[in-house]
Automatic annotation (TrEMBL), chain A:
Protein topology in the membrane: Peripheral membrane protein
Family indicated by similarity: Belongs to the adaptor complexes large subunit family.
Positions with biased composition (Acidic residues): 630-648, 663-672
Organism, scientific name: Electrophorus electricus
Name of the protein: AP-3 complex subunit beta
Any one biological process term the GO annotation gives: vesicle-mediated transport
All residue ranges annotated as the AP-3 complex subunit beta C-terminal domain in the record: 694-819
Gene: ap3b1a
TrEMBL record, chain B:
Job description of the protein: Part of the AP-3 complex, an adaptor-related complex which is not clathrin-associated. The complex is associated with the Golgi region as well as more peripheral structures. It facilitates the budding of vesicles from the Golgi membrane and may be directly involved in trafficking to lysosomes.
Segments forming a coiled coil: none
Taxonomic source organism: Electrophorus electricus (Electric eel)
Family annotation (InterPro entries): Adaptor_comp_med_subunit, AP2_Mu_C_sf, AP_mu_sigma_su, Clathrin_mu, Clathrin_mu_CS, Longin-like_dom_sf, MHD
Record's subcellular location: Golgi apparatus; Cytoplasmic vesicle membrane
One GO CC term, this protein: clathrin adaptor complex
Domain MHD: 176-417
Gene coding for it: AP3M1
Membrane topology: Peripheral membrane protein
The name this protein goes by in its record: AP-3 complex subunit mu-1
SUPFAM superfamilies in UniProt: Second domain of Mu2 adaptin subunit (ap50) of ap2 adaptor, SNARE-like
Family in the record: Belongs to the adaptor complexes medium subunit family.
GO biological process, one term: vesicle-mediated transport
């Protein structure tokens, strides 16, 4: 049929051939017939032929060469889809002879106009590399070129190629780092995963550790006892850590991706935060990870594994979500076990009672393997939390009367481990277990009991020989492991109580001597030589007692996930707990920050390129907002017949300000202002309401205009890039002078980052420094004197050495007033009354408002929309150029804030001119 | 990245294989079969299996194992997520993702897989794009194709692939412009024997079916967005707008898609719509037991509770059940030991009750654990969390779309596989009670 002239017949034939391939049957003898059709015009037929070619070309290289010229022609096709698929197939044919042709094709495609073709080229790089690793240098050139590509489509694929071909060439990333961070939101999901994991590695080599802060106190304490020189060194270290803006950029640009629907993306962001973020910021990933637990079974498995590793190091992260890890009866066994692991890790004094109650239902589970795992978990809890050891032991002893064998066996094993930690107090438990011994058949459990009795035979002097007697009777029927323990028990008893057990021991040793298992024979021979004095082995037998009855250290029950943190989270290696092929080690933080300027070159360029666009986008959008808003206000005011002017409830203040400067400059200033203080925020209901109202009004007023939404999206993204607290001017205010503070000086500044304690608070960073000559201890806030202002204190600083400083952050809810928050700052010895005075601008959070139409020709100005942090009331500011001057308008519900803001802006703007 | 894919049915036959790099012999699946045998149940197969030269990452869905072969380090979730995407795509194309459907459409499956991955790296996974490249099979189309000889493979590159809205295809046209949103909420709760809530949470999704012409830009706002505790979005949703204003602003993909999923976590706010009185007891002697279950509506906000099904996993020793139901009917499967009581609509006046005796294996000891009850239910026109859609606005296009919102509440049903709903903890004498 393939030879037929009719196309439909050929297609039908090809479909059957593909069917054969899919089933895994060999269709290679059709190769010549199929290859002929490669130049066919029918696209579907062509695609099927491609499928066939890629599958069999490796086996029939000579014949495959026949098709090459067709692909070369197709590479020049005007249709980008055909160009791309030709490149795909050409690079997928694994025939070494055509390497030069492939190389040429890739180079050409890398500068193709269509990003889709460039993407395919990025894929082809990996294929060629796996075919012929010698081409590496040429391929790196192409990668370098493609890394500069600005298309979001290409970014993911080229980073993938980078990871595969030259993961160690970190220098190629420097200049593209900021671009990648900024584009990340718009890259397709799969690319995001790859880029994020690459950037994680990159950041670990390029930035200094943000975790140092936590270590500071230990350091300084240590330094106290060391030489002066060392002291000075550690003083240097103590200087407050400032995060590299690029580091911050990475964290900020990945954060929204936690909300992705793609679980792989969420996981990779989570691992990025885990490995890169300062300790106090890591917590934001918790919620998203817990969300993933509601996904498919396989996803749960991987996520739980990662949570298990995290929960060992940071209990607090997942503790509030403990209930999410409760086992459900329908979970698969491996998921149950993982949840158990996590619950055990999370258990502490406070929650242990609930955890144990939960465990107790699990013990009754019909899934016996799971029940056994639960008992082990109980054992681990018992050793970790000493308060409950006794309770757990009692519970486990109760379980010994359980009918199920595995449960009993597991309890015995766990009890043995627990008893080892404090044997003297529990001789009654050992007696109890000896009584149960007859009913237990599981070898491991029997062996454990024997060992226990042997080890602590002094606590149970009467029972031990009796047990040995029973064992002597049944010796030949026992499992190997039980036999071994019987031999040990006999030996130990022989040493402690040889009167009663001498004959028994000899009998058992004789039995062991002729056992089938050579381990047992060996052990018997060894024991005999050791304990029975003879002419030759006399030297050792002196020490027999010390050898056999040496006190043994108690086993440490620890998590199986303990050593997994050596792998990067979310990787295959982490899942398997062994290094997978191609695993790239996450390096440690560098001690000194490498040169930051390497990333600058490109950025300067990029800024130039981007900034006009930004300016325009911003201003145009803002104007749009402004215009409609003010229009509305005017309408409203007209309706209210000017009641506002008299200082009414609406509280809008408008004052024309004369400004001779150009609109451009004001514009840039205001937008800069806004970008500086832009923060992510939960918007209050008040804001929402206002917006919706506006939308309604707008619709009534005007027909919605067509928005070029694509362009708009880009603009929004661009704005995000600029609106970073990176540019926050660090203007510090003095809180406490060193003279008044008797050596303690304190300064504060507003970090303009969202407050982590409460979204109505404003975060304030305090820097304490000790200028005195003695150590200050226990610096804390004792009294909050001002009424109505909520203050979230920093955790007390235990001690501050002379000449050192430390930075802490606290949250203050100013209730949207500029009234100072005063409180008492205490050291161990004294207290000082201090107060923090916010500038009006610090009380604002920027808000993005919906796009509304505007007319560019009439008004040119800038707008800044914000809300008050505490109440959520809106504040709208706009600057409009009018003839020679400009009009500055502030609209807000709160009259006082409005007028204060207006006054400040007015002064600032007139200074600018 | 992903090297090869094998599709294996429950019986252990490999019915499809696809390689993106050089061919890997199907004997690699032997390791998988080994693990499968060890795991007894398909759900228990470990998702990641190590073999001497490869790593196998598998998912189990719709009675098919999707086994992918990996050679180098790759985030396992990446592969798992992709495999699920493949399964969803099959479902989208063929209506269901069964072995029969895949075998019938093997050529399309192959074309799809070829398009979705290039050299093991995902190329196009958006259904809107794939549907432009490869048209889904319909009876009409296959007839037309066989007569005219035209193909069902798109000739040009889908425009979506290049734009910043890759999820939407260009040139969409409908005569009736409609947008439907289904707010589906699932309650996941664990109650103890006395009926107190041990654990409760609400998970919700908003599934959308948008059939609008052109490039509409939609804004969906809620009456009470503060309820939402944790959210995840389709990539089309503008995150910044959500963060600042709590509205969903997006250019929707064409057709069906999941707009967002959310989580409401307010322990006390979760209203449990039914209450259960249950008593299952086994006698020490006489190898029998008694069962008595009564259900009643509670906090349903005036809506009827429908499709109520109670499932009980009985202990192994229960041989048979002799029960009478005042409403609906029950079945007991002595092999799987599952008792299913299908009640249907919950009646306010006459409470459904299931009562009777259980016969146990004679001589066997009385089972220790009291079985837990799983309850399935459905409430139409109610989102139990109280979430309400405020309004939907459209920008960018001139026509007036028809808009609709539907609310449904269900008992928790994790994805497609776990049916965990209402575990009634039976707290007995507690040896570990601290």
């Amino acid at each position: 049929m393939l030879e037929s002239s009719k196309e439909s017949l050929k297609l039908e034939a090809m479909k059957r051939v593909v069917g054969l391939i899919a089933k895994g049957k060999n269709a290679s003898e059709l190769f010549p017939a199929v290859v002929k059709n490669v130049a066919n015009k029918n696209l579907e037929l062509k695609k099927l032929v491609y499928v066939y070619l890629v599958r069999y070309a490796e086996e029939q290289q000579d014949l495959a060469l026949l098709s090459i010229s067709t692909f070369q022609r197709a590479l020049k096709d005007p249709n980008q889809l055909i160009r791309a698929s030709a490149l795909r197939v050409l690079s997928s044919i694994r025939v070494p002879i055509i390497v030069p042709i492939m190389m040429l094709a890739i180079k050409e495609a890398a500068s193709d106009l269509s990003p889709y073709v460039r993407k395919t080229a990025a894929h082809a790089i990996q294929k060629l590399y796996s075919l012929d690793a010698d081409q590496k240098d040429h391929l790196i050139e192409v990668i370098e070129k493609l890394l500069k590509d600005k298309s979001t489509l290409v970014a993911g694929s080229v980073v993938m190629a980078f990871e595969e071909v030259c993961p160690d060439r970190i220098d190629l990333i420097h200049r593209n780092y900021r671009k990648l961070c900024n584009l990340l939101m718009d890259v397709e999901e799969w690319g995001q995963v790859v880029i994020i994991s690459m950037l994680t590695r990159y950041a670990r080599t390029q930035f200094i550790s943000p975790w140092k802060e936590d270590g500071v106190f230990e350091n300084s304490e240590k330094a106290f006892y060391e030489s002066d020189e060392e002291k000075r060194k550690s003083a240097e270290e103590t200087k407050p850590y400032a995060m590299d803006p690029d580091h911050r950029l990475l964290l900020r640009s990945t954060k929204p991706l936690l909300q992705s629907r793609n679980t792989a993306v969420v996981m990779s962001v989570a691992q990025l935060y885990w490995h890169l973020a300062p300790k106090h910021e890591v917590n934001i990933i918790t919620k998203s990870l817990v969300r993933l637990l509601r996904s498919h079974r396989e996803v749960q498995y991987i996520v739980l594994q990662n949570i298990a590793t995290m929960s060992i190091q940071r209990k607090g992260m997942f503790e509030p979500f403990m209930k999410s890890f409760y086992v459900r009866s329908t979970d698969a066994t491996h998921i149950k076990t993982l949840k158990l692991e996590i619950l055990t890790n999370l258990a502490n004094e406070a929650n242990i009672s609930t955890v144990l109650r939960e465990f107790q239902t699990y013990v009754k589970s019909q899934d016996k393997a799971f029940a056994a795992a639960t008992i082990q978990a109980i054992g681990r809890c018992a050793t970790n939390i000493s308060e409950i050891t006794d309770t757990c032991l009692n519970g486990l002893v109760l379980l010994l009367s359980n009918r199920d064998e595995t449960v009993v066996a597991e309890s015995v094993v766990v009890i043995r481990k627990l008893l080892q930690t404090q044997p003297s107090e529990h001789s009654d438990i050992i007696k109890h277990m000896a009584k149960l011994f007859d009913n237990i058949t599981v070898p491991m459990a029997r062996a454990s009991i024997l060992w226990l009795i042997g080890e602590y035979c002094e606590h149970v002097p009467k029972i031990a020989p009796d047990v040995l007697r029973k064992m002597a009777k049944t010796f030949h029927n026992e499992e190997d492991i039980v036999k071994l323990q019987t031999v040990s028990l006999a030996a130990k008893l022989y040493l402690t109580n040889s009167k009663q057990t001498k004959l028994l021991t000899q009998y058992i040793l004789n039995l062991g001597k002729y056992d089938q298992n050579y381990d047992i024979r060996d052990r018997t021979r060894f024991i005999r030589q050791l304990i029975v004095p003879s002419e030759r082995g006399g030297a050792l037998s002196k020490y027999a007692r010390r050898i056999l009855l040496a006190p043994k250290p108690a086993p440490v029950l620890q998590s199986a996930f303990k050593d997994r943190d050596r792998f990067q989270l979310g990787t295959l290696s982490h899942t398997l707990n062994s290094k997978a092929t191609g695993y790239l080690e996450l390096s440690d933080w560098p001690p000194m920050a490498p040169d930051q300027s390497v990333r600058n070159v490109e950025v300067a360029e990029a800024m130039k390129e981007w900034s006009p666009a930004v300016g325009k986008a911003k201003s145009s959008k803002s104007d749009d907002k402004f215009y409609s808003d003010s229009g509305e206000e005017e309408d409203e005011q007209a309706a209210d017949s000017g009641s506002d002017e008299e200082g009414g409830s609406e509280g809008s203040t408008r004052t024309p300000v004369s400004l001779s400067s150009e609109a451009e400059s004001e514009n840039s200033e205001t937008s800069e202002d806004s970008s500086q203080s832009e923060k992510s925020s939960d918007s209050g209901t008040g804001v929402k309401k206002t917006t919706t109202q506006k939308n309604k009004k707008l619709q009534q007023a005007k027909k919605p205009r067509k928005l070029v939404s694509v362009c708009d999206r880009v603009c929004v993204c661009v704005c995000q890039q600029l609106s970073s607290p990176v540019f926050v001017p660090v203007h510090t205010y003095e809180l406490l002078h060193r003279m008044t503070g008797k050596g303690l000086a304190a300064q504060y500044h507003f970090s303009r980052q969202p407050c982590i304690y409460d979204d109505r608070m404003i975060s304030v960073q305090l820097t304490f420094s000790n200028n005195g000559d003695h150590t200050l201890e226990n610096i804390h806030i004792s009294e909050k004197t001002s009424a109505g202002q909520n203050i979230h204190c920093f955790s007390p600083i235990e001690c501050l050495e002379p000449e050192k400083s430390v930075t802490v952050s606290m949250g203050v809810d100013f209730n949207d007033s500029t009234q100072a928050a005063s409180f008492q700052l205490c050291t161990k010895a004294e207290g000082f009354n201090v107060s923090i005075q916010p500038a009006v601008g610090e009380l604002l959070l920027p808000v993005t408002m919906s796009e509304q139409d505007f007319s560019k020709e009439q008004v040119w100005g800038a707008v800044f929309a914000a809300k008050l942090v505490s109440s959520g009331a809106l504040v709208l500011v706009c600057v409009v150029q009018k003839d020679s001057g400009a009009q500055l308008t502030v609209n807000t519900e709160k009259t006082i804030i409005g007028s204060m803001l207006l006054r400040e802006l007015q002064t600032v703007l007139s200074q600018g001119s | 990245m992903i090297h090869s894919l094998f599709l294996i049915n429950n019986a252990g036959d490999i019915f499809l294989e696809k390689h993106w790099k050089s061919v890997i012999s199907r004997s690699v699946c032997d390791y998988f079969f080994e693990a499968q045998e060890k795991a007894m149940e398909p759900d228990n197969v470990p998702p990641v299996i190590r073999t001497p030269h490869h790593y196998l990452i598998n998912i189990y869905r719709d009675k098919i194992f999707f086994v992918s072969v990996i050679q180098t380090e790759v985030p396992p979730l990446f592969v798992i997520e992709f495999l699920h995407r493949v399964a969803e795509m099959f479902q989208d194309y063929f209506g269901d993702c069964s072995e029969v459907a895949i075998k019938d459409n093997v050529v399309i499956v192959y074309e799809l897989l070829e398009e979705m991955l290039d050299n093991g790296f995902p190329l196009a996974t958006e259904s809107n794009i794939l549907k432009e490249l490869i048209k889904p099979p319909t009876i009409l189309r296959s007839m037309v194709n066989s007569i005219t000889g035209s193909s069902n493979v798109g000739e040009t590159l889908p425009t979506g692939q290049l734009s910043t809205v890759p999820w939407r295809r260009a040139g969409v046209k409908y005569t009736n412009n409609e947008a439907y949103f289904d707010v589906v909420e699932e309650i996941d709760a664990i109650l103890d024997k006395s009926g107190t809530t041990v654990f409760a949470e609400i998970q919700g999704v908003i599934d959308a079916c948008v059939k609008l012409s052109g490039m509409p830009d939609l804004t969906l706002s809620f009456m009470n967005p503060r309820l939402l505790d944790d959210v995840s979005f389709h990539p089309c949703v503008r995150f910044k707008r959500w963060e600042s204003e709590r509205v969903l602003s997006f250019i929707p993909p064409d057709g069906n898609f999941r707009l967002m999923s959310y989580h409401v976590n307010a322990q006390n706010l979760v209203a449990i719509p039914v209450y259960v009185r249950q008593n299952i007891s086994f006698f020490e002697s006489g190898s029998s037991g008694r069962l008595d279950i009564t259900l009643g509506p509670k906090q349903t906000m005036g809506k009827t509770v429908e499709c109520v099904v109670v499932t009980v996993h009985m202990p192994k020793v229960v041989l048979n059940a002799n029960l009478t139901a005042t409403q609906g009917n029950y079945t007991y499967d002595p092999v799987t030991k599952i008792l299913v009581w299908d009640i249907g609509k919950l009646n306010q006046q006459k409470l459904p009750n299931l009562k009777g005796s259980l016969s146990l294996q004679s001589g066997a000891p009385k089972p220790e654990e009291n079985p837990s009850l799983n309850i399935d239910l459905k409430i139409q026109q109610l989102a139990i969390s109280g979430l309400k859609v405020n309004r939907l606005d459209m920008y960018g296009e001139k026509y007036k779309p028809f808009k609709g919102v539907k609310y449904v509440t269900k008992a928790g049903n994790h994805g497609h596989f776990v049916v965990t709903n209402w575990k009634l903890h039976n707290i007995l004498a507690s040896p570990f009670y601290v």
